[in-house]
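Quick review question:
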């Protein structure tokens, strides 16, 4: 396929490189020249402009920072593509903007999908991302072979916006379960309970969850995780905060009660304020006492 790839950053660069390695004709574009050159070094052919990349493309993939940027790129490009081109946005953005992007694409005679990912930069490089996808069956069918290259799993969650909805619900739950895990292990410590013993119990009991079993925030306990690498990400706490804020926007727009999601957002806000970027979200275990008092 002829693929335009807009946004070649930490995630987009390796995703575009994997498509190109698999034999697709990929033309990439990023506003930042230095970042574009990094993708070129991994084999991605560069276009001189976003418009140039889109000309004659079968699929236009975007991997951009936020909803406003995605909408402005759609405004810029939708009129230039051939009718029926698939616009596939893999960015994590708010549900409302995703729905607006779908409406704009439909109006312009294009097919469209929202398909945010989980799996991080490691997953983008290894081609093992999970895609959560919203949009029509027709668009999904056309993009499926590309999901199979860039990822190991794609779930068609429903109509336009459903992918973004799935992503923020999952990540809100992940934040809550990570904080719950941190609370349990900190309490165990104060009760003089051995942390490995607690891991052995929880990981095979009703408290079992991904935050304990796979990504335990305690060094030396459970399978290797960022805790064993001084909390180097992994999944950066600032990205978790971005997703939590999107979940809280969606909750207020739909009048949904998310008291634990709101509290998790406030704790991660304080955590990111204190540490900035470059810290895994599981590191919150070390600051819970202080953050709770702040
Ligand atoms: P990034 O900042 O590294 O990449 C975004 C790129 O978009 C930048 O290189 C920027 O120059 C480019 N860009 C911005 N506006 C543009 C425009 N108008 N035209 C062309 N290029 C433009 O971010 P990232 O880490 O690659 O994340 C991309 C998206 O994926 C975000 O929505 C993020 O929330 C999501 N995400 C990231 C991760 C992760 O671990 N990094 C994991 C899951 C999802």
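Suggested answer, residue by residue:
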């Amino acid at each position: 396929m002829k693929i335009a790839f807009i946004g070649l950053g930490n995630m987009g660069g390796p995703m575009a490189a994997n498509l190109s390695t698999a034999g697709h004709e990929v033309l990439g574009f990023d506003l930042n020249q230095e970042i574009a050159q990094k993708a070129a070094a991994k084999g991605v052919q560069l276009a001189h402009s976003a418009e140039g990349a889109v000309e004659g493309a079968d699929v236009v993939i975007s991997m951009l920072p936020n909803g406003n940027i995605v909408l402005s790129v759609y405004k810029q490009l939708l009129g230039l593509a051939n009718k029926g081109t698939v616009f596939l946005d893999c960015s994590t953005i708010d549900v409302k903007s995703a729905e607006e992007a779908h409406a704009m694409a439909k109006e312009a005679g294009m097919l469209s999908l929202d398909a945010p990912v989980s799996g991080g930069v490691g997953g983008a490089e290894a081609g093992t991302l999970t895609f959560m996808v919203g949009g029509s069956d027709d668009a999904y069918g056309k993009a499926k072979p590309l999901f199979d290259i860039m990822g190991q799993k794609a779930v068609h969650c429903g109509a336009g916006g459903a992918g973004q909805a799935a992503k923020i619900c999952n990540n809100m739950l992940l934040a809550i379960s990570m904080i719950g895990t941190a609370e349990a292990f900190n309490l165990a410590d104060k009760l003089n309970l051995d942390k490995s013993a607690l891991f052995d119990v929880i990981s095979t009991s009703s408290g079992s969850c991904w935050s304990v079993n796979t990504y335990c925030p305690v060094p030396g306990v459970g399978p290797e995780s960022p805790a064993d690498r001084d909390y180097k990400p992994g999944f950066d706490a600032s990205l978790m905060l971005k997703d939590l804020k999107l979940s809280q926007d969606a909750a207020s727009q739909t009048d949904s009660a998310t008291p634990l999601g709101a509290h998790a957002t406030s704790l991660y806000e304080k955590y990111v304020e204190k540490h900035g970027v470059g810290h895994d979200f599981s590191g919150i275990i070390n600051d819970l006492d202080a953050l709770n008092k702040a």
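Why it works: DSSP finds 13 helices and nine strands in the chain. The radius of gyration is 20 Å.
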